[in-house]
Amino acid sequence: MPEAPLLAVHNLVKHFPLGGGLLSRPRGWVRAVDGVSFNVKRGENFGLVGESGCGKTTLGQLILRLMDPTGGSLEFKGQDYTNLSRADMRFMRQRIQIIFQDPYASLDPRMKVDSIITEPLRATQRISKAKRREAATELLERVGLQAVDLEKYPHEFSGGQRQRIGIARALCVRPELIVADEPVSALDVSIQAQVINLMQDLKEDFDLSYVFISHDLSVVEHICDRIAVMYLGTIFELAPAESFSVAPRHPYTKALLMAVPQPDPHARAKLFSMEGDVPSPIDPPPGCTFHPRCQYTFDQCKAECPPLVEAAPNHYVSCWLNQGRGLKGDPLCE
Amino acid sequence: MEKLLEIDNLSVQFHTPEGVARAVDGVSFDLARGETLGLVGESGCGKSVTALSILGLIPSPPGQTNADGIVFEGRNLINLDSEGLRQVRGREISMIFQEPMTSLNPVLPIGRQVAEPLMVHKGITKKEAYEEAAVWLENVKIPAARERLNDYPHQLSGGMRQRVMIAMAMVCRPKLLIADEPTTALDVTIQAQILSLMVGLKEGLGMSVLLITHDLGVVAQMASRVIVMYAGEVVEEAKVMDIFDSAFHPYTQGLLKSIPRLVDRVGGRAGRLNEIAGTVPPLTQIISGCKFADRCPHTFTLCREKHPGLFALGDGHNARCWLKDYPERRKTHA
Question: Which residues contact B240 (CB under 8 A, 6 or more apart)?
Fold first, then answer.
């Protein structure tokens, strides 16, 4: 029997009520995550990319069960944890941890680094204060800070150093999977490189897998093995990183890739700009949710939502073009 | 080429509880008519403060702006009183800010905000100003612009708000547009729309643009010349091709090498990113040598003892680095 994947997400749905209250019915639903399925294998870096409002952060929080899904299921190494109680979830969170985007907002300003890093230990295990301190010292040094920093408060650190503290906190319980929600987007490019390299080193040392959430395609492509592109709560394309930028199959992926300004003045192309904004997730367009912005739209796109199918080996796409196989996988250059 | 703006020895200091912070420390550069000059650097390098000080927008106290000259078309802006500056702002030099949410007035309809500079500077009637505002909202490609004159900023998406900001900045047909991170808060597909719009408008009006950004991709696509700032100083300045092809300063080289690029994976997992070790020194610290010495891979004794000048390398390429005089000190493996 094949080994169960580290994380399996089956048809996950999260709808938020819009308005409404104790006595009134909600006026509508925000379909933040609308039927998402994927697996993450052990040792794999899985990337989730998309623009603001595509549901990638909600999906990350659902994986940690920081909020409860409306539908679908979550499995960790074959164990379903969709409906675990709060107490049981505490133990599950020793195996799945999270790094947040904003290193300024995600560390309690009134706690010392020592307490911040060991809080997950205190929450999940009974171990002595001395042991905890020992663990904190070791972790802090591992992420590139020093033992003396244990007595400091978050405001004494720069953004990059704070993100290192956030990483040490996630590592504290020795998790197997870390959901990293935009871990470097608040950082400057030289600091971003430091943190990305650190995350890659730690992956080897601690035998980690990452679910790496970002809007920055080049960062995701650099660090991830497989990448899923999200739009309005669904996955449009899921492919190995190698074929992702070379031969995208979904017109949205292609548009995203072409919109990234390349740091090369010789390749000064007319930036490909796609018309229009992302539609509202409250009232998404019928059929394929991308059809109002897509240059290839035809009748079927407006009527039916395309399924996610394997258009090439390990390359999944949800698009009606070429009998549901999307673009032909041409290289990007035009 | 004819010079539109000349900045000579600009310094901006802020008095803080930790001491005097030298946000901008002896910056000089000029900007030619019709040119797009990119001002690049990481957070805290002084690029935004430089831009704000051109228009006399640094609050005093705590700020203190000194310069031998900020000369715009032969007039020294540093000598102008607040009324004189008000005549320049919005009419001859206008500015686009990073946050379209916080820089528009939330309680005024957008039509009024776009028409205001016209009524103030051109003294035309309200009716004419609104007519002109509608034309500009169409120019920046806001759909159904005429019907939206009475919309409030919260009714618009981030990209649409940034379009309104651009329309406001452009209505008086300024000679210089200062764009401070105009697309940083936007998604990549919307960024591409805004950048193409800016290119089109710039060509149409023949104005100059001072483009401030931390994104080297945006600079590569937009600028004709680039100034790199570090810790309040200009460290390198050159034509855009020279910056990307033959950067001289170790900081510029480090920055360029630290960007993850799309399509640079060679067979599976991408390699490590080049990182610049350490962090930017605090602006309150007094450094007698080169400000980058602590992070530079080539540092030698002189770097810590004496502050390097901005040396000319020919063809308008300047770099603030002792390696100009001691090329043998450059380590090849770094």
Answer: A265, B38, B219, B220, B223, B224, B225, B226
**Diameter over CA atoms, chain A:** 67
Residue of A nearest to B274 (CA): A193
Taking the C-alpha atoms of residue B137 and residue B163, their distance in angstroms, rounded to an integer, is: 8
DSSP string, A195-207: HHHHHHHHHHHHT
* B215 neighbourhood in chain A, CB within 8 Å: 261
Q: Looking at the partner chain, which of A51, A161, A193 has a beta carbon nearest the beta carbon of B275?
A: A193
Shortest Cα distance, chain A CAs vs residue B292, angstroms:
13
Identify the structural domains of chain B with CATH numbers, from first to last: 1-92+175-262 (3.40.50.300), 106-173 (no CATH)
Of B195, B222, B275, the CB nearest to A194: B275
In chain B, which residues have their Cβ closer than 8 Å to the Cβ of A158?
279
- SS3 for B189? helix
* A to B CB pairs, distance under 8 Å: 137
- Rounded distance between C-alpha atoms, residue A180 and residue B155, angstroms: 32
Tokens of A33: 């995550």
The answer to whether the beta carbons of residues B179 and B96 sit under 8 Å apart is: yes
Q: Distance between CA atoms of B77 and A8, rounded to whole angstroms? A: 63
Phi-psi region of B138 (alpha: psi -120 to 50; beta: other; left: phi over 0): alpha
What residue type is assigned to position A235 of the chain?
Answer: I
pLDDT digits 0-9 by tens, B116-165: 989 888 888 999 999 999 998 988 888 888 888 999 998 888 888 888 99
Q: Which of A189, A241, A265 sits opposite B255 (nearest CB)?
A: A189
Q: Is B51 helix (H, G, I), strand (E, B) or coil?
A: helix
Please name the residues in contact with A326: beta carbons below 8 A apart, sequence gap of 6 or more. A237, A249, A250, A251, A311, A317, A318, A319
Indicate the residue of A221, A225, A255 with minimum beta-carbon distance to B262.
A221
- Enclosing H/E stretch for B167: helix B158-170
Are A241 and A254 within 8 A, CB to CB?
no
Please judge whether A261 and B192 are an interchain contact, meaning their C-beta atoms are less than 8 angstroms apart: yes
- ipTM of model over 0.85: no
Q: Looking at chain A from residue 107 to 166, which residues have their Cβ under 8 Å from any Cβ of chain B?
A: 158-161
Closest residue in A to B224 (Cα) is A265
In A201-220, the residues whose Cβ lies within 8 Å of chain B are 215, 217-219
**Residue position matching structure tokens 């991830």:** A224
Q: Token pair of B240, please?
A: 């855009």
Contacts for B196 with CB less than 8 Å, ≥ 6 apart: A270, A271, A273
Q: For A170, phi and psi rounded to 5 degrees?
A: -65, -35
Contact B106, B153 (CB under 8 A): yes
Hey, what are A152's tokens?
């400091």
pLDDT (tens digit, 9 = 90+) per residue, B245-274? 999 999 999 999 888 876 555 444 557 788
pTM: 0.86
